Structure formats: structure tokens, C-alpha cells
């Protein structure tokens, strides 16, 4: 026969409830201990001083003696001297230079006409009368004929330098020369990639024939002319 226990006297019946109540009590005591403040009485007297809201300082009145102003300087009046009368001055009469009916007309043959200072050198593109290449005397457009005859002269006298062929040199040589007042060729200047090509270009230009010189207002002048010569290996 097993013994029976009364459920009201069970020890573990309210264990969770007791645990929660105990935990809450401990937390409450801990909070009270941490927040507990103790005040101690002191015998130190704290001095109190009444400070007015506005401080009004009384400025002492002082009397300062200023220096006397400087006395104005009195200048003596200027002395007026009376100069003696000058001698009688004869005034010259300026006559008008404007012509009138009595003005004598000067003969036009007595007037010296200044000569027009024409430049000695006129560019080929702006000269009035271009130099005439032999064979272009009867052509109407002598400027175009001149350039065409220059191209024919270059093709006729062109020789590729052997040194330039062996070295594989090619390129453009720019040449500038001057057609003198007597129609001769002078002042040849060239610029190219190599001396061999420049020398051949100078040789071609030196073989140009004598031309009729260019004229500006009927007066022979020097005419510079520029042309490129291209050297190209086949």
C-alpha cells in the first residue's frame, strides 16, 4: 500500500513563484542602495555679497588748459613799381596768303615735279608687266605663258643625280631667283633635303635664257620668282 501526499503540502508546488518574488526583492534593494544619498551637516559659512546690477563709475572732472592759438602772420602788401613807358613799337602787318584776282598765275613749266620713288624689286604676282620668257612675246597672257615655259625648261634639262639615286634621295627643292633689270638670272637660292638635289636644281635654273625684264610703270625692275622642283625615284 503506497502512501499518499497532500498536494497542498508539496514543497515544489510554488517554486517558480518564490524565485520571481525573491529576484524582484533583490533588484529593488540593489536599486535603493545605489540611489541612497547621505547629506552631512557642515559648519562652513558661505559669504554672500550683493552685487548691483549696474556699476556706475563717477568720472572725476578735470580742467585742461589748451595752448593759445598761433598768431596770424601779417604779410606786407606787395610793392607796386611803375615801369617807364617803352619806346614806340612798330607792329608788322601780316598779309593774307589767299589768292585773289590780283594773284599772278605761275607757269606750270616752272614747277618742279618730284620723281616717284619706285621700289627696285617687285614680286612676280603684283608687277604690272611680267618678265617675258623667250617665245611668249606674242602671247596675250604672258604670265601664264611664263609659268608654262618654266615647266618645259625644267623637264627638258632635268637629270636625276647619280649620287642621289644611289643614296635613295628624293624630295622637293624650293628655288627662288631674281630676274634682273637687264633680263639675266641672278641671286639663286634653294632649299632641299640634300646638297646633291639642291645642286641639280641650281644647275637647271642657271640654264634659263635671258628674258625681257619686268616693268613697273614703264621702268625695268628686279622681279623675284619662286618655283619648286620635285625629285622622285621611280
Automatic annotation (TrEMBL):
The keyword Membrane applies. The chain crosses the membrane at residues 17-34. Residues 145-234 form the TonB C-terminal domain. Keywords: Cell inner membrane, Cell membrane, Membrane, Protein transport, Transmembrane, Transmembrane helix, Transport. It comes from the Bacteria. It is a single-pass membrane protein. It is found in: Cell inner membrane. InterPro entries: TonB (IPR003538), TonB-dependent_transducer (IPR051045), TonB/TolA_C (IPR006260), TonB_C (IPR037682). Pfam families: TonB_C. One of its GO terms (molecular function) is energy transducer activity. Belongs to the TonB family. This is TonB family protein.
Amino acid at each position: 500500500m503506497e502512501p499518499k501526499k497532500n498536494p497542498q503540502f508539496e514543497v515544489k508546488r510554488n517554486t517558480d513563484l518564490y524565485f520571481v518574488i525573491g529576484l524582484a526583492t533583490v533588484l529593488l534593494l540593489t536599486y535603493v542602495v545605489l540611489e541612497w544619498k547621505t547629506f552631512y551637516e557642515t559648519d562652513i559659512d558661505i559669504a554672500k555679497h550683493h552685487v548691483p546690477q549696474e556699476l556706475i563709475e563717477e568720472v572725476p572732472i578735470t580742467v585742461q588748459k589748451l595752448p593759445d592759438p598761433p598768431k596770424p602772420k601779417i604779410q606786407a602788401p606787395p610793392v607796386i613799381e611803375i615801369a617807364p613807358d617803352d619806346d614806340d613799337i612798330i607792329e608788322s602787318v601780316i598779309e593774307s596768303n589767299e589768292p585773289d584776282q590780283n594773284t599772278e598765275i605761275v607757269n606750270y613749266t616752272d614747277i618742279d615735279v618730284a620723281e616717284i620713288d619706285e621700289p627696285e624689286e617687285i614680286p612676280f604676282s603684283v608687277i604690272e608687266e611680267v618678265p617675258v620668257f623667250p617665245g611668249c612675246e606674242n602671247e596675250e597672257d604672258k604670265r601664264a605663258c611664263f609659268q608654262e615655259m618654266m615647266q618645259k625648261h625644267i623637264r627638258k634639262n632635268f637629270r636625276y643625280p647619280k649620287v642621289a639615286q644611289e643614296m635613295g634621295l628624293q624630295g622637293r627643292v624650293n628655288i627662288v631667283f631674281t630676274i634682273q633689270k637687264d633680263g639675266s638670272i641672278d641671286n639663286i637660292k634653294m632649299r632641299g633635303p640634300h646638297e646633291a638635289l639642291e645642286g641639280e636644281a641650281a644647275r637647271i635654273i642657271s640654264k634659263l635664257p635671258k628674258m625681257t625684264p619686268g616693268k613697273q610703270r614703264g621702268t625695268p625692275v628686279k622681279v623675284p620668282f619662286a618655283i619648286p622642283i620635285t625629285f622622285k625615284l621611280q
